[in-house]
């Protein structure tokens, strides 16, 4: 991610003012970086994004699970987090400030440094003459900072808050096998809180100490990867693939049909390719434009040693440049193998040939907060008129308010008619009723928070039972019968009208 700019400061201030995101929290006590609260509109938007996630996974037969946030130390030893889940840290020469070294390089220079070793990090800092944001000189040593948040269960059981949802999703594997009647493949997903003790989180909700993750795991045998039944449903999807080779050659992503990516061996197998395309389509469903998305393959020295292949979905922001929002990894049988070893339990499944094997896992890992911020970053716009007016061009299906209802005046029965329409529409849509101020000011208030439609009740409404329906982005207005408004809104909110 690039260094923050004036737009990022404008956007984050705006999100606070309009009730999307508050913080750092607890604000009345000075606040601690990395902790944010979602306000009334932010929480609604977050709920709507999670609804898209659930719909996307449910449509392909995944089952949602929920697991405790806290797990004993042995779990994190098995997963490798206790030993290896850390970030490179660099101090200022006076030892009073600390920064995550790779992100400091990225913010100050735009160089992607998350796969640099300690020597490469120090070399980049010196060659680019990078200093702390406060202007202080940096020490000539890279240290390691654990991201794990420690706690205690009862009086003496050592435990940690989970740094990701994925590890906890593996633990009920034996129960999954019972539920799925010992048959592979099957998929589960989980949406929930995770915690990372970040060194110096600064980029708003993009890098927090407490955040919401959504991850899925597909359990399958290796031989199932080549002939994945669902592949044909997405084989013609064109993906913006940025292979390791293209990156090394200094070239950008290339659009490629999924079937061609398999034929040219850009992607190793149909199961992994399907998960990559499935994830890409989910981000399109969030309303992120295709031209703002690329799929970046991990370098050989960047991906985990046990990973057969890993790609990230990245999106382009006005505020912080290219941002990783999702990782898709073929984790082979590493996770179940580790938990079998440390727990002493048999975590295997029987192949069609009757052989006991530890299943492989293809994992989709992403957060909810990052897509949410990306959507807001892309939706923010300023309309030049008599005065500068701000609007959020949010996709209608995820907007925190679908429609505003506005009686032209409070008298002559218009307010009562407006409340009647509001009460009826509230049964199906997220609505707001506003009778205060000029009609233009009321339109502007809702444009500013992304409300896609407005309904005006005027004197003609009292004569012929029609209202004025206004569209946010075009400001187009049309007369619609009250009896038809619910059907029209439903079609347009779902992108069908």
UniProtKB/TrEMBL annotation:
The Aminoacyl-transfer RNA synthetases class-II family profile domain is annotated at 34-395
Which SUPFAM superfamilies does this chain map to? Class II aaRS ABD-related, Class II aaRS and biotin synthetases
Q: Which InterPro entries does the entry mention?
A: aa-tRNA-synt_IIb (IPR002314), aa-tRNA-synth_II (IPR006195), aa-tRNA-synth_II/BPL/LPL (IPR045864), Anticodon-bd (IPR004154), Anticodon-bd_dom_sf (IPR036621), Gly-tRNA_synthase/POLG2 (IPR027031), tRNA-synt_gly (IPR002315)
- According to its UniProt record, the EC number is 6.1.1.14
Gene Ontology CC: one annotated term: cytoplasm
Gene3D superfamilies in UniProt = Anticodon-binding domain (3.40.50.800), Bira Bifunctional Protein, Domain 2 (3.30.930.10)
GO MF terms listed in the record are:
ATP binding; glycine-tRNA ligase activity
What domain of life does the native source organism fall in? Archaea
Which keywords does this Swiss-Prot/TrEMBL entry list?
Aminoacyl-tRNA synthetase, ATP-binding, Cytoplasm, Ligase, Nucleotide-binding, Protein biosynthesis
PANTHER family per record:
GLYCINE--TRNA LIGASE, GLYCYL-TRNA SYNTHETASE/DNA POLYMERASE SUBUNIT GAMMA-2
**Mind telling me what this protein is named?**
glycine--tRNA ligase
State the species of origin: Candidatus Iainarchaeum sp
């Amino acid at each position: 991610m690039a260094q923050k700019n004036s737009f990022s400061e404008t956007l984050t201030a705006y999100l606070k003012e309009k009730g999307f995101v508050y913080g750092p929290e607890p604000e009345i006590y000075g606040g601690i970086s990395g902790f944010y609260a979602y306000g009334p509109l932010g929480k609604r938007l977050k709920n709507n994004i999670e609804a898209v996630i659930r719909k996307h996974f449910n449509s392909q037969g995944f089952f949602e699970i929920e697991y405790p946030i806290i797990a004993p130390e042995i779990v994190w030893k098995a997963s490798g987090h206790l030993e290896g889940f850390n970030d490179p840290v660099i101090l200022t020469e006076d030892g009073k400030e600390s920064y995550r070294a790779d992100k400091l390089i990225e913010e100050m220079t735009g160089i992607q440094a998350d796969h640099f070793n300690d020597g490469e990090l120090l070399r980049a800092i010196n060659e680019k003459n990078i200093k702390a944001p406060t202007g202080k000189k940096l020490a000539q040593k890279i240290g390691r900072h654990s991201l794990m948040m420690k706690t205690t269960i009862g009086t003496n059981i050592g435990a940690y808050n989970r740094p990701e949802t994925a590890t906890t999703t593996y633990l009920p594997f034996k129960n999954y096998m019972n539920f799925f009647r010992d048959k592979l493949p099957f998929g589960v997903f989980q949406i929930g809180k995770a915690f990372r003790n970040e060194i110096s989180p600064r980029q708003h909700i993009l890098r927090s100490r407490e955040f919401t993750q959504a991850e899925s795991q597909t359990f399958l045998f290796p031989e199932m990867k080549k002939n994945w039944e669902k592949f044909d449903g997405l084989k013609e999807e064109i993906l913006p693939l940025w292979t390791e080779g293209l990156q090394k050659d200094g070239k950008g992503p290339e659009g490629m049909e999924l079937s061609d990516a398999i034929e040219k061996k850009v992607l190793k197998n149909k199961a992994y390719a399907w998960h990559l395309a499935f994830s890409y389509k989910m981000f399109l469903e969030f309303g992120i434009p295709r031209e703002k998305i690329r799929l970046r393959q991990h370098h050989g020295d960047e991906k985990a040693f046990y990973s057969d292949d890993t790609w990230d979905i990245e999106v382009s922001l006005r505020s912080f440049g290219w941002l990783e929002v999702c990782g898709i990894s073929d984790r082979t049988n590493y996770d179940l193998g580790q938990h079998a070893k440390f727990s002493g339990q048999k975590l295997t499944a029987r192949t069609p040939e009757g052989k006991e094997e530890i299943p492989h896992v293809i994992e989709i890992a992403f957060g909810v907060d990052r897509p949410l911020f990306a959507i807001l970053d892309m939706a923010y716009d300023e309309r030049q008129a008599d005065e500068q007016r701000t609007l959020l061009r949010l996709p209608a299906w995820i907007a925190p308010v679908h429609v505003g209802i506005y009686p032209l005046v409070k008298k002559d029965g218009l307010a009562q008619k407006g409340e009647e329409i509001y009460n009826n529409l509230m049964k199906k849509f997220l609505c707001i009723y506003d009778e205060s101020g000029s009609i233009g000011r009321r339109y502007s208030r809702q444009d500013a928070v992304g409300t896609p439609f407005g309904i005006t009740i005027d004197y003609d409404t009292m004569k012929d039972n029609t209202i004025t329906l206004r569209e946010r982005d075009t400001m187009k207005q049309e007369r619609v019968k009250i009896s038809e408004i619910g059907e029209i809104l439903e079609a347009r909110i779902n992108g069908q009208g």
